[in-house]
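ok here's the first one, seq then struct tokens
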Amino acid sequence: MGSGSNFSSEARRQAAHILSQPPFTNRPPHVPDPLGGVLRDIGHWLGDVARPFARLWKDGFSLVHGVFGSFTDPVLIVLAVVAGGVVAWWFIRRRTRIGVHKESETPATPSDRAADLEAAAATAEAEGDLEAAVRLRFRAGLVRLESAGIIAGPLVTTTRHVSEALRNPTFDHLAERHEAIAYAGATASPVDATSAREGWPRVIDEVRPGSRKTSDDRQGHR
């Protein structure tokens, strides 16, 4: 009888021990919360930031209520409508100014673009960057040919096509040196920079429609 009682006691202790362990225990296991502290800090910071505005709103409401009494709510509604109207008027006026400013900006003409490129080329040449000077003057020359209606467009026309259309020895020389400098790694010399500066005006003059020299050159190539 005694051994049976001891067995029952031991069984109860084992059962109690098993039931005290998860998943039978009522206490949930500890779940790590690495962001808990960060989120609490953010919440405290937002509270500190918002507290002065809340106090200002409360003081302002108390002041308005003290002046207008029972008319406080209608007064606040009117003020909100007026403030919204002012903000809307400011945005509309700003967008109108931007639109007028954009409309007043006239797009640059090909002549303006060519002049800008030539000015940049002169600056590069003065600073000793002869390669940039040659490349910029070549680009400016193509823009001037495009504006004169001699070529379709400098961005979609190859140098070979331009050469075939112009049949101009001056252009061929400038194009050959430009290709060598821009794409073949040749070093630009002061002679190249001078040739580009003085040669391109001659090309434009020679290939301009109605130019007698253009007709003579083309006939000579036939």
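and now the second one, same deal
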Amino acid sequence: MKPENILSRAARALMHGGIVALGLASIVGSGGGGAIGFPDTSCLNTPQGCLPPPPAQPTASVSPQRPIIQVGMPLHFDVITDVSAPSYQWCRQPSGTTVCTDIAGANGPGYTLAAANLGDDGAIFLVTVSGNNGVAKAGSFVAVSSMPGVVLTDTEFAAGVWSLTAVANPPLDGLSFSASRPVTGGNPGPYRLLSVDLPREVRTVTLLDTNAAAVYNPATQGAIYVIEFSLDCNNIAVARDPYYVNYWLPTLEQSGRRFLPDRNAGASCFSPGWNTRGWLGFEALGFKLVDGPACGAGEACPDFSATGLPIRLGLAYNVELRAVSLSASAPHFEQGFDNFKATVWRH
């Protein structure tokens, strides 16, 4: 055999062996990141296992969530949903019942109650949204009053009307905080400006600001059903520290005690500029004591009944340290508020 034929045959063998080797490598390496020569079994260690993930469930939400309305007034609901090709059915579940009865003709993304009555108080209006990607449900709880709300407002913040105090947790003497009344820059005109420096060792500081003119007396004006609050707030100077959060809450003062709702009700102003924030429907049980004498056993605290003492309303600004901060100095916070409004609703 000629030498060149031997070389040609050897070259062809090497080429064939390379192709086989490459094929083997591709087969061995096809385990998707597992050990060489073995399938990837890491998915067995996940809650889902090795099954494909389930499709995301569709969602829906109704607004307003907890509306308060006077007898005879209309009320409109809207639903927002990611259900594909949606169809709608609204129903009404009266207070104290578990059955939601379909409302005839209520088959759109919105529903209007033409005139609320006392029978609608405590009712839930629920919508079921069905489509190609599944079913979602959402509802709204309605409160109805037989009388108009008592509205208490302040847009001018005259000297001596507001009273500011601070509660620190853990307690701290000598805390640096203040309130002022810039005459311009509000929404519009004057506004109230609160500021606080939060030492690194303090977990939470709450500035409780109550209004001596925003007073409701249940003994002379009637028992309270729920209270709504709103304000315009402006994030003027807030420490850019990821370990701190800050937010607004409504507050009230009665018999030397100060009350706040749960922190989950907090409303934040994240950016400079005036933003409107509001809270719907706080009942007495929605508030907890944060400062002042302890509540006695069996005592209504706060007392919204017709024998309750006068209640002074206001706002609270809360700054909270979530973790150990690396800041070299005490962070400084300033937020302004304007157009304070509280509406007291009665049955």
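notes on #2: The longest helix spans residues 3-28. The two ends are 113 Å apart (CA to CA).
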